[in-house]
What we know:
Blueprint: H1 18-47, H2 52-75
Amino acid sequence: MEVPPPPRWRLSTDPDTVERDLTRLVLTLVELVRQLVERQCVRRMEQGNLTDEQIEVLGVTLMRLEEAMGDLCDRFDLTPDQLNLDLGPLGTLLPAQ
């Protein structure tokens, strides 16, 4: 049984949905940057370049950022899956959670 490809996400030009679509796009970009920062922090921790205090501060900060993204998604009635843009043959923008 062949599974149909996921629908491609496109910015709607419908005046009634343009605000939601732009919000979705902005939150997608914020989530991408948040994930990149998180991966960089993990790399620095694994390399041993950080003190215990710095690791603690980064951990708390990353948790707060993740909570803030969750709150924003809730506020705009979006799920994390809806933020993951389909880039066609390249796959999705964000890695699978």
